[in-house]
Amino acid sequence: MENITLAVLGGTGKEGKGLAYRWAKAEYKVLIGSRINEKAKTAANDLNEMLGKELVKGLENINAAEKADILVLTVPYSAHKSTLESIKEAAQGKIFVDVTVPLVPPKVTKVQMPKAGSAAQEAQEILGENVNVVAAFQNISHEHLFDDHPVDCDVLVTGKGKAARLEVLKLVEAAGMKGWDAGVIENAAVVEGMTSLLIYINKQNMVKSAGIKITGV
Ligand SMILES: NC(=O)c1ccc[n+]([C@@H]2O[C@H](COP(=O)([O-])OP(=O)(O)OC[C@H]3O[C@@H](n4cnc5c(N)ncnc54)[C@H](OP(=O)(O)O)[C@@H]3O)[C@@H](O)[C@H]2O)c1
Question: DSSP code of 158?
């Protein structure tokens, strides 16, 4: 593991806390970000108890974003724009991993992409060209993240810049998952849209964590 600090913004929620747990287990320094300092600290304490070590710290989103090398965003789509605007300055020059899926409740099983093409492209527009937005983990159900079994779903990594995508593929591997370089940020639309399909398949089959796998390679 490299000496990298990760900030998981919105890391008090289901997906972010699970990813933070996996990266802390892989001995990354992890900062949980929240709108509320106390909430971040409580989530970090929960994880440290599970890990049996003090590996995670809780901070307000902006402070976590300032202190980290790589930022990861795990908030509902309704909070995407406002959270991006709040950490824009702190993100400059960094890799920004967007896990957001542009679900529009109540029709979460229907693909409803934003005007920019995808949530990741919106993030790139808001954060600007000096940030490498990389989209990943949008198809990984949080149900997988707190157990130690292999995750039966691949991670398609799309985003700005091959070097940034390769950095994020290291995070995928550290989290115990199989990742693929899936190309430019425009391709994020396919991966984000796939989440609605997986939610539909979950509902049809009364399961919680349908996934996808790349075959034939
Ligand atoms: N859950 C999954 O299985 C899953 C799988 C793949 C992708 N995703 C995507 O990952 C993202 C996070 O999902 P989640 O299930 O973890 O969400 P969540 O638990 O509902 O929320 C995550 C965190 O976002 C912050 N948040 C909530 N509402 C907000 C608001 N109005 N303004 C600002 N911040 C707000 C909260 O943090 P604070 O209150 O601490 O600020 C919350 O703990 C979503 O875009 C989702 O589509 C989720």
Answer: E
What is the distance between the alpha carbons of residues 27 and 41, in angstroms, rounded to a whole number?
19
Which two structure tokens, joined as six digits, stand for 96? 């920004």
Q: Tell which atom from ligand 1 comes closest to the C-alpha of 103.
A: 47
At 76-85, the pLDDT tens digits run 999 999 999 9
Quote helix, strand, coil % in the chain, to nearest 5.
45, 15, 40
CB 40 within 8 A of CB 12: yes
In the CATH scheme, what is the homologous superfamily, with its name and number, of domain 5-205?
Answer: NAD(P)-binding Rossmann-like Domain (3.40.50.720)
pLDDT tens digits for 19-49? 999 999 999 999 999 999 999 999 999 999 9
- What is the domain partition of the chain in residue ranges? 5-205
Q: Which amino acid is it at 11?
A: G
Please tell me whether the peptide bond between 106 and the residue prior to it is cis, using omega within 30 degrees of 0.
yes
Best mutation site among 14, 109, 111, 194 for ligand 1 pocket (most ligand atoms within 8 Å of CB): 14
Amino acid, res. 32: I
124 closest CA partner among 198, 61, 177, 73: 73
Can you read off the two tokens belonging to residue 187?
């391709």
Report residues whose beta carbon is within 6 angstroms of any ligand 1 atom: 10, 12-16, 34-36, 39, 74-79, 82-83, 99-101, 103, 138, 140-142, 195
